[in-house]
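note to self — DONT lose this again. spent like an hour looking for the file last time. sequence + predicted structure for the chain T wanted, 361 res
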Amino acid sequence: MKRQRGWLKKMNVYVARPKVAVSFIEVADKIGKFFARKGHRVTVDIAEKLYLPNIALKIPFEFITWDYYILICTVARNAIGWFDLYSQPMYSKRAFFYGVVEGTTLCPEEYVRKLDYKLVVPSNFCKEELEKMGVKGIKIVKHGIDPLEFDVPQEEVKAFRQRFPSDAYFIYYVASGDSRKGVDKLLEAVKIVNTKYKLFLQIDLFPSFEEKWRAYRDKLKLENRVFINPSFGKMAKREIATKMHAQDLFTVHAATAEGFGMPIVENMICGKCPIVVDAPPMNEHFTEKEGYKIPYTHIEYERHVDWMIFKHHIYNPEDLADTIIYAIEHPRETEEKGIRAREKAMKEYHYMKTYEQFLRI
């Protein structure tokens, strides 16, 4: 009871995040908004910022004592270094590293073990992968969403949907475009589906992947069905929400490896029935009552730069295509799944509910 009363006091909360990384920036903002709505003093800023104990190096100088420090990042050596510094008692009374992995981190074990009893992750998948490295005391706090960000006027949704034929189906995929995101398999599945139904796809990805996936799209002769824009990280949430709402009943999250898979939940809040590979963490967000899951055939590992070995859950594009066709041919079932998906997202992923856990761990 004494501890609960302690949390009722107004705290100085510092939420640290990387300079770049769209998903982490959004998560940091939501956590900051949660603490602010609870009446605490909140600073959301980049993690790579130098402070002396109790003094911020800026003019005018500020006296700072952090009651709570949260660093949001991939579990990597440089991020752990910053966390190890600012989680010290001279800086923070309480601190957690809110981290993700998409497989096995290449961070040395002696660094990862610094996170014992200080690590929070958003999925069971992340917890299990990091426990394999010996990290102890890992807690789970799921990422949260703000439903108000997805409340867009129907006029805007209809206007966007009118860019595509009314007698066709439309799906939208927002993803970085790297190897984890399954863009190749999605394109191959779209080609198969188009032998039976007209299916249009728009992908918003990082500019660095635009040329690669345009070339692959053209190789598959999908120039008139798939539209690729280098818009990832540049769009307002309202634009993304409009495109998600404009989809016809279902959505496809084609990733083979994730740490959480935020777009899955975002599409659910828009009432879209999700289609994902039946592998963690993608399959953690819903049951067969709310969406469709396709089997994976095997696991492949890929070394990504020097900080992660991706754990890919490989599936057949034919299975994805079959599931899309099934969703099209069973509209009532698909629509009902989408309704339940929205209900589940509203109930379990509202940021004011998920981030409440930071006051309980």
